[in-house]
Amino acid sequence: MVDRIPFNIPTAHGLELDHVSESLRSGRTSADGPYSDRAAAMLREATGAHEVILTTSCTDALELSALLLGLGDGDVVIVPSFTFVTTALAFRRTGATIRFADIDSETLGISAATVEPLMDERVRAIVAVHYAGIAVDLDSLQELADRWSVPLIEDNAHGLFGKYRGQPLGSFGRFATLSFHETKNFSCGEGGALILNDPADVERAAVLSDKGTNRRDFQHGRVDRYSWVDTGSSFRLSDLLAAFLVGQLECQSQILELRRTAWRRYHDHLAPAANRLGFQCPIVPDDRRPSWHLYSVILDSGETRTQVIRDLADQGIEATFHYIPLHSSPAGRAATDAPLPCPVTDDVAGRLLRLPFFTAITPAQVDRVCDALLASIARS
Length: 380
Ligand SMILES: *Cc1c(COP(=O)(O)O)cnc(C)c1O
Hints:
Layout (H helix, E strand, L loop, with lengths): L15 H11 L7 H14 L3 E5 L2 H12 L6 E5 L4 H8 L4 E5 L10 H4 L7 E7 L8 H10 L4 E4 L7 E2 L2 E2 L6 E5 L12 E5 L5 H8 L5 H5 L19 H12 L1 H26 L10 E2 L6 E3 L3 H13 L15 H6 L7 H9 E3 L8 H17 L1
Parallel strand pairs: 2-3, 2-4, 4-5, 5-8
Antiparallel strand pairs: 1-9, 6-7, 6-10, 8-9, 11-12
Helix pairs in contact: 1-9, 2-9, 3-4, 3-7, 10-14, 11-14
The structure holds pyridoxal-5'-phosphate.
């Protein structure tokens, strides 16, 4: 029996469980407790945001952005085709039309060149994903957004603590969203955050995220009772989960360093063989620092990938494809008014292989995955 190497293992690295116990002892386990305040302050410090609202998921944070934009029928939002479903669904739920942008073959994110052909007066927002925590070309994308007076939103589910030209990811868009799902770099099972970079959004975001009430004004003594004042939902994270998250964020440098080391080990092992065996390793432009979220390779064909996934599975190693393109999905086709092709997305999604990657992966595990991968590619 070989040891299994799963795709992901969530782990605690510091005081996560102590904080959870303390939260329970304090009797403040619902949203807006002391741990939520602490996690939000840590995230504000990391990104320079005006406000950070912890949410039950990144999906919720995206839905909150859509509500804050007041989107409706006739509005258009541009999102990548190469992303998780809810990057698009969160905006679609408001009735907005979705246009899917293709990705750049280096960053695997959208670019000014892929978004520009989709722009017109109906576009109300552009959503970028920093795939694998490697930033999209933010300067040219922001320039395009500014030219059309349209807000940029960063779905930064992968990229917390990554940087673009020295500036933190999540600090560029009017809104940025984070995920603390079990598969992400920092996790509390399920969780997320909405980063607000425009002070004008702070007050309404507080209401919309708190069931459409002005409870925050009440807590701050600005009104003598709170009431239903706007739309919204129950978007906020439980303090029990925020307590776990604080433990993770306290280990920020340790977690990032472990992931950087694992990423480097994959890269040093695989990159020298890439040309000879006909596959591609990730490309990190010089002006970006990744968040070390995942390690993937692009194989020479979908057939090779199917064979490699099978070979690795036979050795107890869990590798997987990533993202079925949204532009050709049933709901994606129904959501769009501009069914343009996304050839790079189709090509990359058809050949990309994600390797096991998690904070506690050991050097020996990385080596075993690399050896098995190279042997399988050489055979196919
Ligand atoms: C994981 C992920 C999401 C969804 O995050 P949840 O916290 O599970 O809602 C959204 N977008 C991207 C790019 C993701 O990777």
